[in-house]
Design a protein that fits this description.
mainly beta, 5-stranded antiparallel β-sheet, 4-stranded antiparallel β-sheet, globular
């Protein structure tokens, strides 16, 4: 089978697009969690980047970005975004959000740009950027949940 010159370049462009798109995907973390809050209380944490010793409560440790859903009730909660470096915690954002039992919390972190996006039930809850934490692995956690609540 002989390829025409135009077909060859068309396929080459598609391959180049696919490779660059695939590279961007590799550097993007997507985490989706469902918070089941039958009773009020607890803190539900997603860490898009964290060292193995990272903790954000009650005393911060390690290095991490921490996205928290704090004290969810049947109608509202607080979305808090923190950066923890060398046992020091800095707040990047804190905002009230609507809350419901079984709500979806989606966190996207893009390493290339340092962009952090948090979606609550598919609505944007936070968008910011910080690229000061260069490495780490993702993780999730729960602190002080009432009986029956889970992530």
């Amino acid at each position: 089978m002989t390829l025409r010159r135009a077909d060859f370049f068309k396929r080459r462009r598609r391959l180049a697009y696919f490779q660059s798109h695939r590279t961007r995907r590799k550097q993007q973390l997507r985490s989706e969690n469902h918070v089941n809050a039958d009773a009020s209380g607890g803190t539900y944490v997603t860490n898009p980047r964290a060292t193995t010793n990272a903790l954000n409560g009650p005393a911060p440790a390690g290095t991490a970005y921490a996205i928290e859903i704090q004290n969810p009730t049947c109608t509202s909660a607080t979305l808090a975004v923190y950066k923890i470096v060398s046992e020091s915690e800095a707040s990047l954002a804190s905002t009230p959000i609507p809350c419901n039992n079984g709500m979806t919390v989606r966190v996207m972190y893009t390493a290339e740009t340092g962009q952090i996006a948090v979606f609550i039930n598919n609505a944007l809850g936070y968008l910011g950027s910080d690229s000061s934490i260069a490495g780490g692995k993702p993780g999730i956690g729960v602190r002080g949940p009432p009986s029956g609540n889970s992530i």
